[in-house]
From TrEMBL:
It comes from the Bacteria. PANTHER family: ENGB-TYPE G DOMAIN-CONTAINING PROTEIN, MSS1/TRME-RELATED GTP-BINDING PROTEIN. It holds the Pfam family MMR_HSR1. GO terms for biological process: division septum assembly. Residues 40-215 form the EngB-type G domain. Keywords: Cell cycle, Cell division, GTP-binding, Magnesium, Metal-binding, Nucleotide-binding, Septation. It comes from Methylobacterium symbioticum. Its cofactor is Mg(2+). InterPro entries: G_ENGB_dom (IPR030393), GTP-bd (IPR006073), GTP-bd_ribosome_bio_YsxC (IPR019987), P-loop_NTPase (IPR027417). Belongs to the TRAFAC class TrmE-Era-EngA-EngB-Septin-like GTPase superfamily. EngB GTPase family. SUPFAM superfamilies: P-loop containing nucleoside triphosphate hydrolases. This is Probable GTP-binding protein EngB. Gene3D superfamilies: P-loop containing nucleotide triphosphate hydrolases.
């Protein structure tokens, strides 16, 4: 990486810090398409298997321990939860896919809502698909990626719980996922390794969000 690239990267990290330095508040929840808020903000959605750490990562991203509700019980998030950040950005915490400690009919309803949201949300800039770094991509994850590719929805892989792996394990995990993504048309090539325990990767994730806003000509400073 040359000096220009380093300066650009440092600038995005600072832009991301500023973006998440102000207010971040819950403002809407939807269990049906009819209850979705108007398509006004740029939206960034967080998807992943149940208990992968979506809510914890949103809390780390915003620097607020209780913004998104966390639980050790899979299936705690039972709707699309919207969080306003600054003037132009909304974060969307999605119900986890896969196992959840609720009845099958409710899981099927969540699944329908998720797919309908992903296909019909014109202001959705990117889906961050969270993968537990300890386990890598599973069949349920690849099914979701297939759906995102088919719907032409831009997505990026974010590994969670990165503090649980040794450096050599991280490198092997990254190589494996990079190979799996190589032929996926909607996948953003960079994989982010994060941990909500020690904040590793959080500045880079904020920078990625700031870049998406900049690409749309929107200011990133929180307001």
């Amino acid at each position: 990486m040359d000096q220009t690239d380093q300066d650009r990267e440092a600038g995005l990290v600072e832009a991301g810090r500023l973006l998440f330095a102000g207010n971040a508040d819950f403002y809407a929840a939807a269990q049906t398409l009819e209850r979705l808020p108007p398509m006004e903000d740029v939206e960034i959605a967080f998807a992943g298997r149940s208990n992968v750490g979506k809510s914890s990562l949103i809390n780390a991203l915003t620097g607020r321990n209780t913004l998104a509700r966390t639980s050790h019980t899979p299936g705690r998030t039972q709707q699309l939860n919207f969080f306003k950040v600054g003037k132009h950005l909304s974060l969307v915490d999605m119900p986890g896919y896969g196992y959840a400690a609720v009845e099958k009919a409710k899981v099927e309803a969540w699944t329908h809502l998720i797919h309908a949201y992903l296909k019909g949300r014109a202001n959705l800039a990117r889906v961050f698909v969270l993968i537990d770094a300890r386990h890598g991509l599973k069949s349920l994850d690849t099914d979701v990626l297939d759906g995102l590719d088919k719907a032409a929805v831009s997505y990026q892989i974010v590994l969670t719980k990165g503090d649980a792996l040794k450096k050599s394990e991280v490198e092997a995990r990254l190589r494996g996922i990079e190979a799996a993504l190589a032929k996926r048309p909607a996948a953003f090539p960079q994989i982010l390794l994060t941990s909500s325990r020690d904040d590793r990767g959080v500045p880079e994730l904020r920078a990625a969000v700031a870049k998406l806003l900049e690409e749309r000509g929107l200011p990133v400073r929180a307001g």
